[in-house]
Specification:
Helix content is 42%, strand content 31%. With 159 residues, it is of the alpha+beta class.
Length: 159
């Protein structure tokens, strides 16, 4: 039985990653069909976060990651709403240049189209690509873990 623990763990991780990836793709595709309402950018800036780690030689290293923060407002049935959700992929941590490029597309005061969830007026996005790279990577990683899980399961059964 202990030999089966490793392949079953791989298969569990695989199914979890595949489910998460498929959920993300479905969420993106659904939001692309939401109604579009006019909105206005209130704030666009780059947020940064630092993390510290120690390398194998004992030296401290500082890593900085960047995230575009786009705050916008829109109205649904006369009620004002605000959000910072850029796309269904959630928070994206990236390099400084990429974050600045996103911020440059959404200067404060700009009029935009907001994709608004008809089932939940407070849920909205500015962008909704049908497939995000992150979702595709998650599905691919799930497939890889699945293949490893099946191969190790066959190896464990054969003894």
């Amino acid at each position: 039985m202990p030999l089966l623990l490793i392949p079953l763990t791989f298969l569990l991780v695989a199914s979890s990653l595949m489910a998460l990836g498929v959920w993300s793709i479905r969420r993106r595709r659904a939001s692309a069909r939401w109604p579009r309402v006019p909105g206005r950018i209130l704030e666009a800036r780059v947020a940064s976060s630092e993390s510290r780690s120690r390398d194998d030689n004992g030296f401290d290293q500082t890593h900085t990651v960047y995230r575009p923060v786009i705050r916008y407002e829109y109205q649904v049935q006369g009620a004002a709403q605000q959000s910072e959700q850029l796309d269904p992929g959630g928070v994206v941590w990236t390099g400084q240049a990429a974050a600045e490029a996103v911020v440059a597309r959404y200067p404060a005061g700009k009029t935009v189209e907001v994709l608004q969830d008809p089932a939940n007026p407070g849920n909205s996005f500015l962008e909704s690509p049908a497939f995000g790279v992150g979702a595709i990577i998650i599905v691919a990683m799930g497939a890889l873990f699945g293949v490893i899980g099946v191969l190790t399961l066959f190896a464990a059964i054969r003894g």
